[in-house]
């Protein structure tokens, strides 16, 4: 199949070659069928880059664990209103601090500007998986 991705739209994003599973037949919009054996490239998929603005994952988790009851974690991540509310209520009597620690360590709550955390190369990173109309679903074969 020809590479239909226009590289001019995202020149700095990496593009990975995807190999379809063996014995897959694909039909394009023109009606042409292509049979894949599993050894040839079926398409190229661009992967979006993560932008970072200086927020460290380790610092956010440490602030949440040790100073979360003062709202320091929310101030650090750019949520001053929630940080002040946590400061005035002593972390919502500790319950809000525990919930924020869980949310920050699971990377559900991130920096307020929408950027990603700076994470060490060998550190943990959460990749959210989603099922869309472009997701291929393979039927389960029972023995």
Automatic annotation (TrEMBL):
Q: Where are the transmembrane segments?
A: 55-72, 84-104
What is the organism of origin for this protein? Ictidomys tridecemlineatus
One Gene Ontology term from the biological process aspect of the record: apoptotic signaling pathway
Keyword tags: Glycoprotein, Membrane, Signal, Transmembrane, Transmembrane helix
* Topology versus the membrane: Multi-pass membrane protein
Could you tell me which residue ranges the TM2 domain spans?
54-102
Q: What is this protein called?
A: TM2 domain containing 1
What does UniProt give as GO cellular component? Answer: membrane
What Gene Ontology terms describe what this protein does at the molecular function level? Answer: amyloid-beta binding; G protein-coupled receptor activity
Q: Which family does it belong to?
A: Belongs to the TM2 family.
The protein's location, in the record's own words, is:
Membrane
